[in-house]
Structure formats: C-alpha cells, structure tokens
Predict the structure.
Amino acid sequence: MQEMNQDRLSRVKSILITLPKPETEKSPYFDLAKKYNLKVDFRSFIHVEGVPARDFRKDKINLAEYTAVIFSSRNAVDHYFRIGEEMRYDVPADLKYFCISESTALYLQKYIQYRKRKIFFGKQTASDLAEVLKKHTTEKFLYPCSDVATEDTMNFLQKNGYNVTPAVLFKTVVSDLSDLADVFYDIIGFFSPSSIQSLYINFPDFKQNKTRIAAFGLNTQKAITDAELIVDIAAPNPESPSMIMAIENYIKKSNK
C-alpha cells in the first residue's frame, strides 16, 4: 500500500468523481457525502460513442458467423445489440454469452430473455472464465470492445488458443470540461488512464497544488505518476478494496 503523504493531509470538503452521476440515490458516494457533510459531484471526463454500422462494415465482420460473444462491460452489451439492430441482424436464440462478471451477465436482461439463453460469467476477469471456456473450445468467439480496450482479455484468449475476433463497436471520446476551468475540488477521483488524458487535453496547464488525487487501478496510478502528479489515495489495496473505502479511510485521517 502506498504511504500516505502527511504533508498533504488536510481537511476534505469537496470531491469530484470522474464518472457519470449514479442513476439512483443509493450510491455509497451519496452516503459518504451525508456522513461527512461533503460536496460530492460527478462528471465523466470521457464518454462513449458508438461506431456507425457503415464504418463497422469496413471491418468485414459477419456477425452471423460467430457462435459465442464475450462481454467485458455494459457498453459492450449495449453496442453489440445496437450494431445488430442497425445491420438488421437477428441475434439467434442459441448464441452463447460469456460475461466477465455477473453484473454484466444480468445486464443482458435488457435485451434477451435471460433464463432461456446460454449465459456464463466469471468474477471480474477473463481468466475467471477459464474453466467454463475449456468446455467450449470449438466456439467461434466475437469480442465487442472499444478502440482503447485493455489487452488483458484478448491476450488471455489468444494465448489459450481460442478462436476470437475483436470487434471495435464503440470509441472512447474526451468530454468537454471547459465549465470546470475555475472550479476547485479537494479530491478528484480517477478510474482510467483515459481520464488523465482528458484532464490535460482540457487543461494543458493543470497544476495539482493542494488537490488530492485518488486513483483506482495500477494503470490509472501509473498514468498519474507519468504525468508527474501525486497519487494521494490509491485503490484497491488490502485495507481498501474499493475507491469509496479508500477515500473514506483518507477522510477519517484528514477530517479529524
């Protein structure tokens, strides 16, 4: 676990989470705000745009050729069914779905009758699906992804000899953050390297000063240190497996 920089430890009154605002009031971030009397705002530094069917056709991927689909996110689910509709492709009832997590698998209910389909899921990574995938080595897999998809899933599948084709169905785009130019937050929470990139595209002269930066994941932490910024709050770690826990543990020390 990263050592806490005591020199930068000061009271926290406001937090910006670089994710879309939760759709319900049940988010633990709202509980945190109420518990410590904090201002907690949400603003996605990046957003997703679908690849139009006309552009997808240039990749010459025939959806009907694939017997199984591997989903690593809800975005992948949304854009797979979107592109299918745009291309007038009727998703067959016997298509097999392999999902990185149970929450992604359950999200399929938005598009299909869950109980009547062949759906498999892991805990959080492609390797969690290893035992299930071993029983389906003859499948021809499609892997819907973004233009900046992490290589972990593809590397795992290819390394283990699966017949898998990546399909870029959506792109990660930098959001316009110009309205935040003169807004200050005590903590900014980042969840991806792309959000760090967005920060500097929007604010090339950004100076961290007294702003504490929270980072989730090693890749995000590396992007922050590569930008010569300080990671004040790192997650996950043995004491704080989630970002919300890491931030709260920090606040317990800073707001004594």
Notes: DSSP finds nine helices and eleven strands in the chain. Residues 8-45+176-254 form a domain with the Rossmann fold fold (CATH 3.40.50.10090). The chain has two domains: 8-45+176-254, 49-173. The mean pLDDT is 92.
